[in-house]
Amino acid sequence: MSDNSTQGNPTQGNPTQVSQPEGSQPEGGEYAGLLDPVVKAATAAGDRLLAEFSPAARPASRADMAAAGQHTEELVLGELRPELASLRPGAGWVDDDRETVPLPPGEWWVVDAVEGAVNYVHGMPEWGVTVTLLCDGQPVLAVVRQPVGDLTYTAVRGAGSYLNGQRLRVSAKTSLNAAIGVTGQAEAGQDDTYRRIGESVTAMLGHALLVRAFVPSTFPMLLVAAGQNDVFWQYEPVLPGVAAGALLITEAGGTVSRIDGSPWSPGSPDILAAALALHQAAAGALAAVG
Q1: What is the pLDDT of residue 188?
Q2: What DSSP designation does 176 have?
Q3: Which residues, including other chains, have CB under 8 Å from residue 244's CB and lie 6 or more apart?
Q4: Contact in structure between 141 and 157 (CB atoms under 8 Å)
Q5: Interhelix angle for 239-251 vs 218-225, to 10°?
Q6: What is the pLDDT of residues 249-267, one digit of tens each?
């Protein structure tokens, strides 16, 4: 993510814009060479999940979901984690205890082995494998592999965002009253966060064309990067849910910040991502939520 796309007032600083022919993937500095092997690793992980995926799956309880989720995570990480470690031996690994706190300096792999596990175990298609490399608190490379539909989203800082090799652009909308806004649900047990989510939906309903809630966060953020959704916000996000989307959106010409317009970074208690022309209005619509 470019520094000037996430800092200061939402009206200040334009995200990195890279002019390239459609379908052409430009160089992305030192991280460009990592892209192909990360795509290969994420695709192989997705294939392992797809081999066991059933559209007919219908868990009967939370215990069923938890057991299925544990199995699928083990199915992926046993191979994916050492593959990524071999690509960047000095990079750390973001485990559960680091998902909501600032990261120390240096490089960190942020991985969701089964992003959208709740969808996976219910036989729905919105699930995948996400891999993001952060350097000094900013995403520099992201791969999202969605096996159902054979979709691969990629981004390298300074080199644009792509879906199956085709350049992504955020929405060209300039008015919030024409926008599709989406928020994500927080993890269980956060009553005050639930209150803010409800108030934010009510606030945004007064300004946007349409408001949705979706889990996991990655998928609406992908749609913001592709210009099919316009605004995404979330309270108390976990890093694996938003890291890849943050880079994909900024590299597609959008803006990512905290909801108040200040810089977003790992550990921030909220996030707002939007098409550039809508970002200030979206921040204003959410400003009254305490």
Answers
A1: 66
A2: G
A3: 110, 130, 131, 132, 139, 142, 143, 144, 153, 155, 218, 221
A4: yes
A5: 0
A6: 999 999 999 999 999 999 9
Q: Residue 18 — very low, low, confident or very high, per pLDDT cuts 50/70/90?
A: very low
14, with CB counted inside 10 A (0-12, 13-18, 19+), is exposed
Sign of CA dihedral 121, 127, 129, 130: negative
| Cis bond upstream, residue 15 (ω within 30) | no
Q: How far apart are CA 276 and CA 4, in angstroms?
A: 12
pTM of the model: 0.89
116: left (phi over 0), alpha (psi -120 to 50) or beta: left
CA dist., res. 197 & res. 263, Å (int): 21
Chain-centroid distance of CA 214 in Å reads 12
Quick one: CA dihedral 263, 30, 169, 221, positive or negative? negative
Q: Which residues of 124-159 are buried (b: 16+ CB within 10 A; e: fewer)?
A: ebbbbbbbbbbbebbbbbbbbbbbbeeebbbbbbbb
Decide: helix, strand or coil at residue 174.
coil
Phi-psi region of 62 (alpha: psi -120 to 50; beta: other; left: phi over 0): alpha
3-class secondary structure, 135: strand
